[in-house]
Each structure stands twice: as structure tokens, then as C-alpha cells.
Automatic annotation (TrEMBL):
Domain Gfo/Idh/MocA-like oxidoreductase bacterial type C-terminal, residue spans: 209-268
GO molecular function, one term: nucleotide binding
Region feature (Disordered): 464-485
Domain (Gfo/Idh/MocA-like oxidoreductase N-terminal) ranges: 46-167
Protein name as catalogued: Gfo/Idh/MocA family oxidoreductase
Transmembrane segment boundaries: none
Length: 485
């Protein structure tokens, strides 16, 4: 099956022509599951290995295995407990090859594809090594940890001829596909603003995941975990709660903004923003972390042949003890699309041509004769048919119960592997264009500057300093660790 992005989008446009704006309860034109139409035989199995069998490694592996003719043959992880757990969870009746050294996975001829599900600072190294070793790669988001690392991954992918998918699986959901169809069909007019917030107020939500009591330099390969990060003594918190440290993770931007940005890029066909500014603070989780727990970001997306210029405003607040009302809205000049977990609501609203007069307006401040003259002119210019707005319409979409975005995202990857195509839904060019704005958010925050980005060439442009903002403690403590930017 040739399930590349271009044919997928073509399919969407065709479906769009049939769009009606009444209430909908099922997807138009999208199967709940993208089937693998390529030749499948018992011997045609794709043999995968997971590198990084932590929380998402388990979920990714399960989602991959929900596709037909996929077999797990190996696991690499740096904590012995997770290798043992993998043997019980996935080995079942047969022996599962496990190792602490991902290079042993890459050297195995029986591995066709690897899932790179390590902390962010390992993504580029393992992905490039895997492509060079002739493996297909499914790499978790964000594709890379720093802006400077994207090109090398793209080059390695192009040179390898292998299939690669970046793992922001939500764009394979029926909701995002429906949003794309609606936006591409012009249902909400020209997009002018996108906003999203993703707040939390819990220790686990703020990434303080459980640390196993047997964590030690014996059960954890600490040196390998550090990789190219600064050397330091064993620290179980840094290993099991790596998101809290900029040496290994990408903060709230890389963890949460990335999903929305990927979705927006998918829905709008945009290449990315040109200007990115973020600000933030460490307000509550002062537990040794060196990344902010509150971050807001503004991005300017320029007009292209695919869309008008729009602004995107994102926020995460891990210290929101108030009412949490997470929302994602794509606002156009004829309506908006609002997302919730598995649903979306489109509200269509179009202004009448006639602007109206009276009410809170300057009209009442005119003299009587001027008011009469104004009304005469208004009546001549705006006949009755220009005065009524179209009735507001609300269109609800609920994803089918069996919609399995995660398995579908892998399904697209495997279909491309089988057909020898590099045209996945989220190939590394798309993946880097989505990652770049979030990495720029971090750069803007830590270096107190506006980041200028060229989304076409995927290169950083001259930087502006934001004048006179005092540097905060969190920035000072993190100074000097931003090695690769
Ligand atoms: N797509 C999504 O919705 C989604 C959700 C959660 C996490 N993620 C991404 O998945 C990745 C992993 O996140 P997580 O929450 O599973 O973290 P985790 O800490 O639970 O698991 C990471 C695992 O990687 C292992 N590891 C670290 N370095 C390694 C190396 N060099 N070789 C082999 N194994 C190594 C660790 O031992 C650990 O078990 C991150 O990039 C994260 O951004 C994506």
C-alpha cells in the first residue's frame, strides 16, 4: 500500500467536496483503521525491537503489535527491572532477546525495524545509528532534543532509503483527520489564531514518576544513560524523572506543545512559524528540576499558499490549583474548531456584510439631521439581504469507539515499510518541522530571546535579544548546559 502523505491529502480533498455541515457522528472517508493492504503472508512478518522499554516503550510496543504480522524480537533498556518486566510482558512462551546495549539490537539481522523510545537526548544518536545499520525507525517525539540536530537525522534517513515515522500518534486519530478535512474544505474560513492550554496539578502529572526501590548503579547503566550529557554521579531521580532536567528532556514544550503543533501542522499543511517567543517560570515544583513548570509561548505563522498568516499561543501550567479547563481551539474568520480528547466541535459563524449601527456606537452622538442622513446612506448601501448573519451552526464529531490512533500510526509506518516507501504520515522532515518550534520555545526561554526560524529551509535565522528582562534563577542554574544549541 502506498500510504504516503500526498495520496492521503489527495484523499482528504476528494472527501471534502462531499462535506455537509450538519451534525455528524461518524468520520467521513476515513477507515477506523488503516489496513495494511500489502502482501501479507505468515512469512511476511515485520520484526521489531524496542529501544527504551519504559512507560511509552510499553505503550508503543503494544500499539505496534496490535497490527497484523508484527513480531517483537528484542528489547534494549538500561534498567534491569524493565528488561525482566519485558520478558514477562512480551516474551510469554518464547525467549525474548534483551540487552542493555542498543548496538546489540542494531547488529541483529533478524531486526527489521526499531522503536526508539528513550529519553529525548538519545533520539538522534540511536536513530542515525539504526538507519545506518539498515533498520527502519519509529522514533518518539520530539524527533530531536536541539534545533541543531534535525538535519543530521534527515540526511541519515534520506541516505538510508529506509522508512521512518515520528511518534506523535494523535495525528492518526479520527478527530485530527476530521479537523484536517474541515479546515481544508474551508469550513471555518481562513485560520487567524490557534490557542491551547494543557494544565495539570499533580505530582505524576508534573513528571514525578515512581522510582523503583532497587534503583542503583548495579541495576541501571548510568554511564550509558548520560550519553553525551554532562558526567555526574548516579542519581535515580535524574534517570527515572529525566523530563525534569534539560540535559535529557525538552521540558513542557517538547513533552506537550509538540502534540498540538504536530496536529496544527497536519491540519493546516503549514511548514511552521517564523518567530517564536516563550516565557515561563518554576513556580511550584521546586524539587531540583531545572526546567520551568509554567510556560507560555507565542508563534507567528506567515501566510503561505496553504493558509493565511496566523498566530499560535500555547500554555502549560503544572501548578494550576484552580479550575483546569484544557482546551485547543483553531479559530478562523468563519468559525472555530475546538478539540477535546476524542471529539471535536466546529462552530460556524459568519458576519453579515452590513456593519450595523446603534447600541454602543457613535451613532447616538450625531445630531438628529446627521443621524437621518446617515440612515439614508446606510439603507442605500446595505439592502436587507446584507443585514442578517447566517445562523450559527454547531457540528459535533465523535471519534468511533474503536478508533485506535496509536495502532493506526504504526499501521502507516508498517505499510510504508512493506511497500518500500519513505512516505509516512510523519516522516523526519515533517517531524523536524514540528519539533523545531518547541525546541525554539526552549531556546527562547533559556536564552531570553526571540527565535527567528526559516520553516522552508529549516534553519535558524539571526536572533533578537528581548531587552531588559531580568534573568531568573532557573536560567542562571541551567546556564552552560545547553551544549548543542
Ligand atoms: N507519543 C506520546 O504520546 C508519548 C508519550 C510519552 C512519552 N513519549 C516519548 O517517549 C520517550 C520515552 O518516554 P517515557 O515516558 O517512556 O520515559 P521512561 O523514562 O519511562 O522510559 C525511557 C526508557 O528508556 C531507557 N533508556 C534510556 N536511555 C537508553 C539507551 N541509551 N538505550 C536503551 N534504553 C535507554 C530507560 O532505561 C527507560 O526505561 C520520550 O522521548 C518521550 O517524549 C511519547
Amino acid at each position: 500500500m502506498q500510504s504516503n502523505r500526498r495520496t492521503f491529502i489527495k484523499g482528504i480533498s476528494a472527501a471534502s467536496a462531499l462535506v455537509a455541515t450538519e451534525s455528524i457522528a461518524k468520520p467521513f472517508g476515513f477507515p477506523a483503521y488503516i489496513p495494511n493492504l500489502a502482501k501479507i503472508s505468515p512469512n511476511d512478518k515485520i520484526r521489531i525491537a524496542t529501544i527504551g522499554m519504559g512507560i511509552q516503550g510499553n505503550f508503543d510496543t503494544q500499539a505496534a503489535l496490535r497490527n497484523p504480522d508484527v513480531e517483537l524480537v528484542g528489547v534494549a533498556d538500561l534498567y534491569t527491572g524493565r528488561l525482566e518486566h519485558a520478558k514477562t510482558a512480551f516474551g510469554k512462551d518464547k525467549e525474548l532477546f534483551t540487552t542493555r546495549d542498543h548496538r546489540e539490537i542494531l547488529a541483529r539481522p533478524d531486526v527489521d525495524a526499531v522503536l526508539v523510545v528513550t529519553p529525548d537526548h538519545w533520539h538522534d544518536h540511536i536513530t542515525i545509528a539504526a538507519l545506518k545499520a539498515g533498520k527502519h525507525v519509529y522514533c518518539e517525539k520530539p524527533m530531536v532534543q536541539h534545533l541543531s540536530e534535525g538535519k543530521a537525522v534527515i540526511d541519515a534517513w534520506k541516505k538510508s532509503g529506509k522508512t521512518m515515522q515520528v511518534g506523535s500518534q494523535r495525528i492518526s486519530s479520527a478527530s485530527f483527520q476530521e479537523a484536517k478535512r474541515l479546515v481544508q474544505a474551508g469550513e471555518i474560513g481562513a485560520i487567524n489564531y490557534i490557542e491551547s492550554n494543557s494544565d495539570r496539578f499533580s505530582a505524576i502529572g508534573a513528571w514525578n514518576y515512581s522510582v523503583p526501590p532497587d534503583a542503583s548503579p548495579q541495576t541501571v547503566d548510568w554511564d550509558r544513560f548520560l550519553g553525551d550529557a554532562p558526567k555526574r554521579p548516579f542519581d535515580a531521580n535524574r534517570f527515572f524523572r529525566w523530563r525534569n532536567y534539560k540535559d535529557y528532556g525538552t521540558g513542557v514544550a517538547g513533552d506537550l506543545f509538540i502534540h498540538l503543533i504536530t496536529g496544527v501542522h497536519f491540519v493546516t499543511n503549514t511548514l511552521g512559524p517564523t518567530r517564536i517567543f516563550s516565557s515561563g517560570n518554576l513556580a511550584y515544583w521546586k524539587d531540583g528540576r531545572d526546567v520551568p513548570d509554567i510556560m507560555a509561548c507565542i508563534m507567528d505563522y506567515p501566510k503561505t499558499d496553504q493558509h493565511e498568516a496566523f498566530q499560535m499561543v500555547l500554555r502549560v501550567n503544572f501548578a494550576n490549583a484552580g479550575k483546569i479547563n484544557d482546551v485547543t481551539r483553531i479559530i478562523g474568520n468563519e468559525g472555530q474548531i475546538e478539540f477535546s480528547e476524542n471529539n471535536l466541535i466546529m462552530t460556524k459563524k459568519k458576519l453579515p456584510i452590513a456593519p450595523g449601527y446603534g447600541g454602543y456606537d457613535s451613532f447616538f452622538t450625531f445630531t438628529e439631521p446627521v443621524q437621518q442622513e446617515f440612515v439614508k446612506g446606510y439603507d442605500a448601501k446595505y439592502p436587507p439581504e446584507t443585514r442578517t448573519a447566517e445562523p450559527v451552526k454547531e457540528v459535533k464529531f465523535t471519534a468511533p469507539k474503536d478508533d485506535d490512533a496509536h495502532a493506526k500510526h504504526f499501521g502507516d509506518f508498517f505499510a510504508n515499510v512493506r511497500s518500500g516507501s519513505q512516505g509516512t504520515l510523519e516522516d523526519p522532515v515533517f517531524g523536524f518541522r514540528a519539533a523545531a518550534p518547541v525546541l525554539a520555545c526552549n531556546e527562547s526561554f533559556f536564552e531570553q530571546k526571540v527565535v527567528h526560524w526559516d520553516p522552508v529551509t529549516m534553519t535558524q535565522k539571526k536572533l533578537d535579544k528581548v531587552p531588559s528582562t531580568p534573568k531568573k534563577k532557573i536560567i542562571a542554574s541551567a546556564k552552560g548546559t545547553n551544549r548543542k544549541t
